[in-house]
From TrEMBL:
It holds the Pfam family Methyltransf_10. The lineage of its organism: Bacteria, Pseudomonadati, Bacteroidota, Cytophagia, Cytophagales. The keyword Methyltransferase applies. Specifically methylates the adenine in position 1618 of 23S rRNA. Keywords: Cytoplasm, Methyltransferase, rRNA processing, S-adenosyl-L-methionine, Transferase. One of its GO terms (molecular function) is 23S rRNA (adenine(1618)-N(6))-methyltransferase activity. Belongs to the methyltransferase superfamily. METTL16/RlmF family. The gene is rlmF. This is Ribosomal RNA large subunit methyltransferase F.
Amino acid sequence: MSQPPTNPPAEKDGLHPRNRHRGRYDFAALQRATPELAQFVAPNPFGDESLDFANPEAVKTLNKALLRQFYHVPHWDIPAGYLAPPIPGRADYVHYLADLLAKTNGGEVPTGKRVRVLDVGVGANCIYPIIGHREYGWRFVGSDVDPVAIRVAKQIVASNPGLSGAIDCRLQPRASDIFSGIVKANELFDLTMCNPPFHASAAEAEAANRRKTQNLGTKPVPNFGGQSNELWYEGGEATFTWRMAEESALQRHNCLWFSTLISKKETLPGLYKTLEKRGAVEVRTIGMSQGQKVSRIVAWTFLNPEQQQQWRQRRWQAGPAPVPTVPESGHVK
């Protein structure tokens, strides 16, 4: 695991205190690490170096540079049209989940290969497992319904020796399922995570992209990309997370904490109701923000405090030395 940078300049509002990307992008350093980034960097109206974030190829190349510089992943690429997510926000999710585990571990983040995480919808980019493994040494299973995404994610893992043996990518055989078909009998995970598709249909996703690009004054091209399964699910975010909550109840003894990102606050009441109905012992809502963008993580467990401590003793106490946490900036319900 690499160490976070010290004294980051010009902190970005709202990012987690351990997030490596709190400072402004150092385009000079990024271009030295990834020279092909130079063609996309130019002064903005204020005279500062910036990137054309409406250009999907520019965003993908920035991701290559960030993964190389901060996470020591020199070989990363995805096919055209696949999601190239903004890495600072992805890192935030990982760090807040680390804090969640710390609450069960005496205030310290458990690290190393004893911690296993399931990333539902890993995508071709494999970003969450890369960040989680490089920051905390965790092992990951990444699932996806798209065979191409799984093939590309496997190629990324195989091309980078530092990821070898740490990330297992599995194809979800049924597009409607979440955990079924992925979690094996008696397989245990300390965390699950997911960035669910939040549109209800392809038409809704296309309309949202048109509105976004009109506001930016650019051509209607999704700057971060995304295949249909990455962007929409029949019934939208509410239906997807309802299904996740239902299936999590069937895996209640296989996982300590289930979690998902929620982009629409209107999704929350229905999810809370389903979790209450299915017997979740504890539900936490953790606020995240980056500039004007506000989202939240909903996490839940079916284990009571005594069972959580038994889980800790069984799985983590013999593991590597944990790292200290910092005070949370997110709101916990």
